[in-house]
């Protein structure tokens, strides 16, 4: 028996289970908060909450970037799980006593906690995996994580029996499991709670705003930031379209919660299948083929919806956009960060994957508000179709610079996992 290989596989499974717990928590949080928001404020007000989310996201990003120079990423991931539970309980208590705006608070909490924990998780991955091991392992990590998405099925059953708002308590064991696993992972791999000091100029500590200068100085991160923005604007517009048709099709709140759960289970099931084969897909198509192929496939689905704008076509469009976003797009995107230095992997990446991610949703919200004001909502998917062409253009630029970066530097092959 190859003990070294067994040790490597065990660490990889440990790390993958962290992702599973995070995704499982979101399987409870997302359907519940979506359903509560539609019930109390209507799908037409989703653009408003999209506008509010980036302000809290920006604050959390600043605090996170401040602490990631002081504490290790594994320590921050565990702490984020506990803090997320406490904030959720406060927001849920405010909802139960009828506090105005509490549904908005719950929705914003769900938006911020998930993007923060996923960001920390993948920043940790990008520091632990080498480029060589990432090609083999990222698909496996994503596939195991996706099994957490089956909590989307459970949330429907809980909602029907105990009520939609009480289904939110399912988040607690998932995040507690994540926190416990961070402790086990850190102990078994001798990881410290404090961050490793960075030599030279990178040792300077700022209150979380260094990511701006890091991105401005990088010809590589700048187009990647715009690409992430384009992708998230497109997905957000598709989500808004889906939620609008969902409200028209199903009037009962608990039924909507169940439908949302089933749709997200389908997302995760297809994503898991793609993730298991992502190594072969990346080997066959390359990162370039993946980055260009996804908007082409999505463009075909968009054309189908434009021709036949019904709920089931909107569901198909949503599933396609989400399953690609959760699988081969995610693994390909994360590989782009591996050759970068520590500040680019943490401070710069955090600004892109946390703040830009949510700012893109706000941009989609502003666009939808404009379309609503002028009665042009029927053209929202035509706009997404146009964005696909920009996506392809930016992808070509990024891949060219990525290949140049790889060829001009030696990427360390220190496989810590």
Textual characterization of the structure:
With 417 residues, this protein is mainly alpha-helical. It has a single domain, classed as Growth Hormone, Chain: A. Helix content is 80%, strand content 0%. It contains 15 helices and no strands. It has helices at 3-41, 46-67, 73-96, 102-128, 131-146, 151-162, 171-188, 210-216, 221-249, 253-276, 278-307, 311-326, 328-337, 342-373, 380-408. Helix 1 (3-41) packs antiparallel against helix 4 (102-128), helix 1 packs antiparallel against helix 10 (253-276) and helix 11 (278-307) crosses helix 13 (328-337). It starts with a helix and ends in a 9-residue tail after the last helix.
With helices defined by DSSP (H or I, 4 residues minimum), what is the helix count?
15
Measured as a percent range, the helix fraction is over 70%
Mean pLDDT: 82
Net shape: globular
**In percent, how much strand structure appears in the residues?**
under 5%
CATH class: Mainly Alpha
Instruction: Please tell me the total number of domains.
Output: 1
* Gyration radius, in Å: 21 Å
Low-confidence stretches: 1-7, 199-208, 411-416
Biggest sheet record: none
CATH topology: Growth Hormone, Chain: A
Query: How many beta-strand elements?
Result: 0
User: From the 3D coordinates, which CATH architecture would you assign?
Assistant: Up-down Bundle
- The termini sit apart by 19 Å
Give me the CATH superfamily. MFS general substrate transporter like domains
Secondary-structure element series: HHHHHHHHHHHHHHH
